[in-house]
Amino acid sequence: MARIVIILQDLGGGGAEKMMVRLANQLVEDGDEVSMLLLMAGGENLQWLNPRVNLLEICATRSVKALPTLRRWLKQLQPNAVLSALTHVNVISILACASLGWLARLSVSERNTFSLDRGVNSNWQVRTAYAVAPLLYRLLKKPVIAVSKGVAMDLVASAHINAKQVTTAPNPVIHHDWLVQARAASHHPWLQNKTTKVIVAMGRLVPQKGFDWLIEAFAKLALQQNCRLVVFGEGPLRAELTKQAAILGVADRVDFPGYSSNPLAEIRVADLFVLSSRFEGSPNALVEAMALGTPVVAFDCPHGPREILADGQLAPLVDLGDVEGLYQAMLASLQLPISEQGRQRLVQGVSRFEAATATRHYRQLLLGA
């Protein structure tokens, strides 16, 4: 048994937070003593955290203000290994561990395409973190953990880090609790009582997710196919995307219901899942859809979809930004029913993302052989 601390800003609704919860849950099930240390507090993913995980919330108003308390907690916990996720949190964690002489205990994780992600946040503290992170990463004794090969290659190229200082580990997406959640009933009326084909997408309503492209492609599709589109998520582009759907004449066929408390139950009964992102790290929702046997279509964005879809062998991979191509792929997927064999190919294609398998990989990186 090892003592492991996982450091995050909070347990908000993002993919990084969800994956760290699943990693922590699997580690405690495997017999480790795990503490989840939050620089702030709470979040949508808190409900999924195993009660056996020791939850510590610093409740700082800003990440940087959590540094003194973080240092004290780490000193008290005396972990064998520390894992930090997200760039700005990584910077705080490096400073805390360096002050304790613990850089050999620390592993940091990059969850998104570094060169693109650093430009989407206007907060000066986050921008500063992205500027200094590459310098601090070179001080680490353990390699930076990237969520995909594409993220790793981008980190080497854009942050000028030696390739030997970067490694990859799959996200622990598929957990047995996940299967229980997936079997629950859908809450969305279009999916509860389906009278037509329903397409599902998921993510924050921000430019990165490319929902403007998806709505444009769907408007073309709606001229050929009786179908509906549900986009689960919340964000600053809600009004703009709603207006776009109205202008294109599909407002009655597109719904933005906000975050789902159980997105797996919605994806499971959908006829198609679409990933329209401009960039990603390793899109967990795409893996979840495939693990449920739901047909998928994805843009070939940097990074993750090409690796997950085996260069397009498992499902259609559309050139980034090709709205016509996305429409054609969606139409073909809806018109050609997937076989049980096809569903099993999708499920088997993402087996490396099973929590037990991915956690063994993480544990080896954190603690050594």
UniProtKB/TrEMBL annotation:
Which residues belong to the signal peptide in this entry?
Answer: none
Enumerate the spans annotated as Glycosyltransferase subfamily 4-like N-terminal domain: 14-173
What is the organism field in this record? Bowmanella denitrificans
List, alphabetically, the Gene3D superfamilies matched: Glycogen Phosphorylase B (3.40.50.2000)
**Per its record, how is this protein called by name?**
Glycosyltransferase
Stored PANTHER family: GLYCOSYLTRANSFERASE (PTHR12526)
- Show the SUPFAM superfamilies listed in the entry: UDP-Glycosyltransferase/glycogen phosphorylase
